[in-house]
Amino acid sequence: QVQLVESGGGLVQPGGSLRLSCAASGFTFRKYAMSWVRQAPGKGLEWVSRMNDGYGATYYAESVRGRFTISRDNARNTVFLQMNRLKPKDTAHYYCNTRDTLGNGYWGQGTQVTVSS
What we know:
Blueprint: E1 3-7, E2 10-12, E3 18-25, E4 34-39, E5 45-51, E6 58-60, E7 68-73, E8 78-83, E9 92-99, E10 105-107, E11 111-115
Parallel strand pairs: 2-11
Antiparallel strand pairs: 1-3, 3-8, 4-5, 4-9, 5-6, 7-8, 9-10, 9-11
């Protein structure tokens, strides 16, 4: 079955960096777009970034464009989110996500990112 396992979160000071990873299994990873979505405390889900299948096009929310970079390693079935110049408003639980050809969405358990001095 599809499994997504995020890691790499933690506590970082404003202006710092973190690199999130999402290890995928149970599907042909290279054929699927992968996304990162976050949820700040007390708020709804916010889409952050997406990378199309293969080594395809990348897309970013305006709030993170220029600071975050999504990438993937299809040989390792892993998608990454490099987060630079972090701000307190980036504090959230970060999830990776994919959707199959039937439109079913799959989520990992997420990883917490806290940006605070």
